[in-house]
Design goal:
The complex is a heterodimer of chains A (162) and B (503).
Chain A (H helix, E strand, L loop, with lengths): L5 H21 L14 H23 L13 H19 L11 H13 L7 H22 L9 H4 L1
Chain B lengths: L1 H13 L2 H19 L5 H8 L8 H26 L8 H12 L3 H35 L3 H18 L4 H16 L1 E2 L6 E2 L13 H19 L2 H4 L13 H23 L5 H14 L15 H16 L1 H7 L5 H12 L7 H5 L1 H33 L3 H20 L2 H19 L5 H23 L6 H4 L1 H18 L1 H12 L2
Antiparallel strand pairs in B: 1-2
Classes of the chains: A mainly alpha (162), B mainly alpha (503).
Chain lengths: 162, 503
Amino acid sequence: MNIKSQKDFFSGLMFMCVGVAFAWGASSYNIGNGARMGPGYFPLVLGVLLSVLGGVITFKALVVETVDGEKIGSIAWRPLFFIIAANLVFGASIGGLPSIGMRPLGLIFGIFALTFIASNAGDEFNLKEVTILAFILAVISYAAFILLLKLQFPVWPAFLNA
Amino acid sequence: MELFDNLALGFGVAFTLQNLMYAFIGCLLGTLIGVLPGIGPLATIAMLLPATYALPPVAALIMLAGIYYGAQYGGSTTAILVNLPGESSSVVTVIDGYQMARQGRAGPALAAAGLGSFFAGCVGTLILAAFAAPLTELAFKFGPAEYFSLMILGLVGAVVLASGSLIKAIAMIILGLLLGMVGTDVNSGVARYSLDIAELTDGIGFIVIAMGVFGYGEIISNLSKHESERKIFVASVTGLMPTKEDFKNMVPAVLRGTALGSLLGILPGGGAVMAAFAAYTLEKKTKLRPGEVPFGKGNIRGVAAPEAANNAGSQTSFIPLLTLGIPPNAVMALMVGAMTIHNIQPGPQVMTSNPELFWGLIASMWIGNLMLVILNLPLIGIWIKLLSVPYRWLFPAIVLFCSIGVYSTNNNTFDIWMVAIFGVIGYLFIKLGAEPAPLLLGFILGPMMEEYLRRALLLSRGDWSVFVTRPLSASLLAAAVVLLVVVLMPSVKSKREEAFVED
């Protein structure tokens, strides 16, 4: 059997899986009945509905012809990895990782780390340019978020304060 | 006249130096971010929302409304100057606007967009003020069954207006509704789908979803395109004033666009995007005057009408939100989130219990529109400079502001981990061709819908017929059915596909 639309086929599968997962999860809560709905009632109905829709989408993707096969195309691993990694490292710098005993490194460190990691997601990486960019962003953020909006962020690494 | 009393009260609130300043800052920031290609009003509002946390509620909402208009306005500028729609409602503006810019008429195109939007904004504000009171009266007649049916109508509307596959849009809404179920159930206290994570018992933050899906997802997808596809040709702007001939063509187009936009904005599921599409289609149907440039080749009407319509629509889409408490589209869903953060439950009671906020917001919408004209036409040079900033400098900054914004919502790194997950999910949605806007709407409406469904059925002792035996509820559901049937009719279906193919 040929897949006529890749995008629809896989999105249908995704909807089916998520629908089943939610419906299965709902069954562990009290369902109740129409007049007295338990916490599981509404999610169960929605979960079943979503899996049915997912099934229809998948089925259509196998049957209905499309012009170009609606290919998903290659996945942009590089930007995906670096953008998400930049975000995670920023989170770790600002909040620390208590589970492994890492203390916060602060906003300024986080901004430099984020800028350097995220910049790898693009086509070119120019060390000088990125350093300047990180510096500018750090100054702007410090002025806007710490001085002006007075958000409660650790600014400098925690070990310096101790 | 009560209307004028109310407006006077509103202007009294809005015309304080402090609130004028917030409106100004909102418009400025909104335009600043909105001008950047690929960032729509949704991402802009989500990104700038944390900036309003520290403000008093009235000021915060005024600023947010300013951000919203600014973002939309900035999107039109980008559309005209660089052939890149900054957001979906300026997709049609690109067609004729960019052609005008190529012919060296970027100035008149920008002026047409600006003046058209301003006029539409004024009308939209008046309509909003006039309809608010009677609709609020109506809202008090609504029981849980009516609210539930209204939400169904709204969601159906959102599906109908989404581009692409209908059934996928419905699935995305249901997915959104399900994500809205995560967290503690208000009735039983059971923590649903929390996976034993303490933070998840409060539910998933809507900012996390908005930023992950609309911010990170978009950035990753943009970066995956090759540099040449992102190449930007920035048209130069010489002379802003449209000619007399331009005005002659523009005025009726703006009037038509405004009327259409106001109407579509009120409808649940409507709003700026559909208004712009409909207005452009309508203009294309009207006869060309002798000597007029054809559509698609730089006709000023093709800029003025959709821009007027999208502004009128974005104005009147506040009506269902402010009177019924139901967001008609994803941007308004974000506004609900913003209001809840400031402890305001959107709905009919806002007008009576908090008239300063209500009328102040409406008055500041008009002021915001005025500021945008003042801000944009003379400052256009700055925005053009901003457009020539290379993307490789922009995207790390966007990632940074998203991260800071997410963290500052709760001062909790858990939200940063979540936004990473939703960033991956957002990119997946783009790859699978599933439009994420309906998901956000479903997410906001999910808990409300469940609550109203529960109450309606509790009152009727489990009898589902309550939704069709109560006349108001029945007519709302009938409208939803009619809407679905109309879209599925073969002739309309092909038209709809045609309309969305133009982007």
